[in-house]
């Protein structure tokens, strides 16, 4: 079952920069998806935003010789993506994560959405005790119990300090908008550097749940280069190298004892081929 909107609905994919994705993997995925949009245009999502000006400063451009100050903001990129002969109306939402005024931003985002036809995907990444030398896991969760029947989607059970994605997921659930959060776990010892490997993992998970296919462009090669650079960094720190080796052992043991991995991947492939006919 593909997680897609109805024929007259749209899929909204949110990928912000900042705390929700410290390595900016979510924003990288949005940039790739934008290149798959047919005849896209920009729209204002919300003007109720505030930012850390040291991290996201405004910049000046020249328009017909006159200076124009451009401030950071969350924007929407609207268009359509073709899937199996159908053009799926798509809204990509990206930009820096606001410091506050989250409620206003969420209200502006929710206003045009329709529970009976639209769906939302929230992309993010978070530091975790995972080795960079293995596949980076992507956790799919939803507040909506009706969605957890979809392959790989689990019931959201997190309790604790909330980020913007967490608050947004609850607000969407309360309005009845079908929503899935995709969170890639990134190595905590390399969480602040841009990670094309995390972006590639998010893109693959997005393909799995929607049945769409996207060209990863240069992400595959960039992922190898990123892994090589982290290898060099780890080799210079013996304690870190030992910790990575321990995480690799734990990862390999966990996947070795999960004999259903291959079967699940094969089922995904069959489903995608069937839906693309």
UniProtKB/TrEMBL annotation:
It holds the Pfam family PAC2. This is PAC2 family protein. It comes from Brevibacterium ravenspurgense.
